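Ticket #4471: structure output looks truncated?

Reporter: J.K.
Steps to reproduce: submitted the chain below (374 residues) through the standard prediction queue, then opened the result file.
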Amino acid sequence: MKKIIISILAILLLTGCQTQEKELKQYTKRTLTAGFDTEIVLIGYAYSEEEFDGYFQLLREDFLHYNEIFDHFKDYEGVNNIKTINDQAGIMPVEVDPDIIELIEFTQNYDEFNDQKFDMTLGAVLEIWHAYREAGMLNNQEDLPGKVPSITLLEEAKELTGYDLLEINKEDSTVFLTKEGASLDLGAIAKGWVTEQVAVTLEEAGLTHGAINAGGNVRTINGKPDGPWRIGVARPSTLNPSSVDTITLDGSISMVTSGDYQRFYTDENGTIYHHLVDPVTLMPSNYHRSVTIITKDSGLADLFSTIFYLHDYQSGLELLERFNEAYLESQIGVVWVIDGDQEAPSDDFVHIDDNEFQIAVSENIQKYSRVFNP
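Returned output as attached by the reporter:
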């Protein structure tokens, strides 16, 4: 089906090129029904709305496919997905779509820079936090505090984690968790990795200028016909959707933000408990309000937005230096945001928005930042 769509798009592009002086026009479409529990937006430049609709349909079908195979909550008829692997933990290997193994191996490629801040086998711990978070959010809606899981409960769940429990057979395309109760969770990277795959598919189909926004995972396809993209760094607030900074992006670049301002609840002391859990402490981190990663690959940006969020500022700077020295072709830039009244970990932070927040931007991307290069 995908090949047919690509062929149709190729014909449309050829027709467009042969039409006298037809101009590219900007089109935008969005959907809430393509999976990953988020709104997905495509902005694209095409010669006709029909051509753009073809790109959007291709995007939607791809996201739906990937949503099914990476879902760890729901079963789908005829599909072995992450939930299937978890359900069969300690029982038998599960034959899966090769894309699942490809994503697992993608994360493992960066284990050297993981610093124990990402563990795809942490599912048993994250399931506990998910249950408490859902209950806490409901309590907060009734002006009641949420409860916090005991460290004993979390440590018991941690006994069901570890890469030694994960067996992959590429030849048979199987994944096996060897211990009952063990659980994979790829939520920290799946959406970004998928966004990258979809962007590449759209490029191959002929889209020359565009941008995908998958719930805050932004991936551009070249610049705009008339110049670079300007992408806002989201304000860490559910009440104010404006930006704390704007980053100018030219070419095909990804920008992903992780923060504490979505999917969170508070306890009786007003402490925020969000979805970004440190695999070492088993607790949500509170160093920053948000961390944004800018790099070429959306999967890489998604993975490292979590890793950098769970690092304090100084150790994050050290990681940034190590990574950028090792990957000269995949340089990472970082934007850190903290509260305005928080004690800044460095003079690198500047106050913005009437001191509501403080922001720091890594030196390698300061020239693209509206705050640091007005």
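Triage note (M.O.): checked the attachment and the full token line is present. Residues 202 and 293 are 23 Å apart (CA to CA).
Status: closed, working as intended.
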